[in-house]
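Researcher: Structure prediction, please.
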Amino acid sequence: MITIFGSTNLDQIGTAGRARAGGTFSMASGGKGANQALAARRAGAKVLHVSTVGDDVFADPATELLRDNGVGLHGSSAF
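Model: Predicted structure follows.
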């Protein structure tokens, strides 16, 4: 098993048109630790990712991709 201690984020990505009207907004899971954990899991390793995430509306979406791909999150905590 690989254990990774690192950050877990929810990236918020916004783009603006040339005249700053319109544009798009999206969110994506991120963080160096989370990205490493996901890559190791996709390569076939059994992975535990230890991180602290906030206790807000972004916490579940930030960890959802990890859970959905089989990355263990036991020991992670919200503050």
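Model: The longest helix spans residues 32-42.
Researcher: Thanks, that helps.
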